[in-house]
Every structure is written in structure tokens, then in C-alpha cells.
Automatic annotation (TrEMBL):
It is found in: Cytoplasm. Interacts with 100S ribosomes. Associates exclusively with 100S ribosomes, which are dimers of 70S ribosomes. It comes from Yoonia ponticola. The keyword Lipoprotein does not apply. The keyword Coiled coil applies. This is Ribosome hibernation promoting factor. GO terms for cellular component: cytosolic small ribosomal subunit. Gene3D superfamilies: Ribosome hibernation promotion factor-like, Sigma 54 modulation/S30EA ribosomal protein, C-terminal domain. Required for dimerization of active 70S ribosomes into 100S ribosomes in stationary phase; 100S ribosomes are translationally inactive and sometimes present during exponential growth. GO terms for molecular function: ribosomal small subunit binding. Belongs to the HPF/YfiA ribosome-associated protein family. Long HPF subfamily. Residues 131-183 form the Sigma 54 modulation/S30EA ribosomal protein C-terminal domain.
Length: 191
């Protein structure tokens, strides 16, 4: 397992890094069979420390948790508690609903773009015909069932997840609706 522990304008000393590796390692060993890597970033927001933890599991799923506290160790502990809860739920769901998966999740490469912000009227600040791309990132699109996609979206606390549907190999989207329910866009089954 690979750990990447860093701080945004904060020194993460050896004691903190050792604490993070031992505590997170114990939680991951308890719930996640083969985690591949963990990225933990510490930052400061006002008077509080913020700890953002992202763990990639060998199944292709990603667990993400954030903790806030006035002390850096307490911020990590808050993040770890949320991560523990997510992984416990994930493991329970795997036992209950996804016993049939025998192979790891297949990932496809895709481009991800961040566009320039718009003003309050909804119009782009730049030329509206060609919005300015301010960042281009490579991302992975997992090949999942719809149920696994919803679980992945909930684990990562994301509002939307694009995935390749295992049943027909088409691109699908699940998203959190304003009413709290989950929406599923499946163009293959339209009409």
C-alpha cells in the first residue's frame, strides 16, 4: 500500500505521518482487503485544521472523507472516523448485494476539463461560443453495474458519477437529485 501524506503550507512531521499510516492502515486492514493507495492532505482553514483522505481500493472504488478540528491530530481522527464508517458500509453492501463480482473493476481513460467560471447571469465571462479551458486532467471511467455506481458515488460524496455500464458497455451517469433521490441516465435504454 502506498501512502502520500502532504500538507498545504503545513509541515507534516514524521510523528504525524507515522500516526496516519498506523491508524489508517489498521482501519483499511479491517475493512478493505487490498487498498492500493491513500492520499491524505492536511490544510488550514481559519483556526481549524482540515484533513482530506482519499483511499483507492483494488475493486476500483474510491472512499473519501474530510475532517475538521482545532488540532491537526483531531482533524485526522475525524476524517478517519468518517472513512471507517464508509468502509464498514461498503463492506456490508458488498456482502449483501455484490457477491457475484469475481474480477476487479475495469477502468477506461478519459479526459476531464475544467471550464472558466460564469458570471451571475449564467453567461461566460469570456467568449460564449468557445469557453476557456483552464485545466485538463486525465480521469478514469469505471466499468460498473448501476448499483455499484451509486455506491461509488455515495462513498466519494460526489454529486455525479460517469461510468461504463457492464451490461451493455454504454456510458451511463448517476447523480444526486435535488429531492435527495438518485437519478440514472442510461441512453441505451431510451425509447
Amino acid at each position: 500500500m502506498r501512502y502520500q501524506i502532504s500538507g498545504k503550507q503545513i509541515d507534516t512531521g514524521n510523528a504525524l505521518q507515522t500516526h496516519v499510516q498506523s491508524e489508517l492502515g489498521a482501519v483499511l486492514e479491517k475493512y478493505a482487503g487490498r487498498p492500493t493507495d491513500a492520499n491524505i492532505v492536511f490544510s488550514k482553514s481559519g483556526h481549524e485544521y482540515v484533513c482530506e483522505s482519499i483511499v483507492h481500493l483494488s475493486t476500483g472504488l474510491t472512499a473519501q472523507a474530510t475532517g475538521h478540528a482545532t488540532e491537526i491530530y483531531a482533524a485526522f481522527d475525524a476524517s478517519l472516523e468518517k472513512m471507517d464508517k464508509q468502509l464498514r458500509r461498503y463492506k456490508r453492501r458488498l456482502k449483501d448485494h455484490h457477491k457475484e463480482r469475481s474480477q476487479p473493476v475495469e477502468l477506461s481513460d478519459a479526459g476531464s476539463y475544467i471550464l472558466a467560471p460564469t458570471d451571475e447571469s449564467g453567461e461566460a465571462e469570456q467568449d460564449t461560443v468557445s469557453a476557456m479551458i483552464i485545466a485538463e486532467i486525465e480521469t478514469k471511467i469505471p466499468s460498473l453495474s448501476a448499483g455499484e455506481a451509486v455506491m461509488q458515488m455515495e462513498l466519494s460524496n460526489a454529486p455525479v458519477l460517469v461510468f461504463r455500464n457492464e451490461k451493455h458497455n454504454g456510458i451511463n451517469v448517476v447523480y444526486r437529485r435535488d429531492d435527495g433521490n438518485i437519478g440514472w441516465v442510461d441512453p441505451k435504454n431510451a425509447g
